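Consider the tokenized backbone below.
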């Protein structure tokens, strides 16, 4: 079964929280932890590779915290997942450096490559700004009530 780990799922929620606060300046890790129900310790573990990859900037001081290094419309889900999880691949044979000896003659590899390509295209098509808009839409719907 293909699964995104807790690290990848929580990393996406961390990045969404930073995207939601993008225009408001740095966000404290404790606030992200509270809003997303994730421990500060776990967020510390997730934030490091995102900083190294240049998606997050940290600032110290009284008004410090974390911000996105780029606008939310310029960060896609594939970037985030691959930083936290590694290359996205359904099966090893879809990779150029496949260890499988049947790569050149395997007809089912075509199927796996097409499915993998669709998955990557979907992850690339979702940017953080899309998730911000969906989050705002969801909040608006949650506030609606009928008389």
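A designed sequence for it:
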């Amino acid at each position: 079964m293909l699964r995104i780990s807790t690290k990848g799922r929580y990393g996406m929620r961390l990045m969404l929280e930073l995207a939601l606060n993008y225009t408001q300046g740095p966000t404290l890790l404790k606030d992200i932890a509270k809003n997303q129900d994730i421990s500060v310790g776990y967020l510390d573990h997730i934030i490091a590779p995102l900083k190294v990859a240049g998606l997050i900037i940290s600032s110290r001081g009284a008004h410090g915290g974390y911000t996105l290094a780029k606008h939310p419309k310029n960060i896609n889900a594939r970037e985030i997942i691959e930083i936290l999880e590694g290359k996205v691949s359904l099966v090893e044979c879809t990779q150029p450096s496949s260890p499988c000896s049947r790569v050149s003659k395997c007809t089912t590899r075509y199927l796996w490559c097409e499915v993998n390509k669709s998955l990557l295209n979907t992850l690339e098509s979702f940017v953080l700004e899309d998730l911000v808009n969906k989050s705002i839409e969801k909040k608006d719907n949650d506030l609606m009530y009928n008389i």
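The first strand starts at residue 56 and ends at 59.
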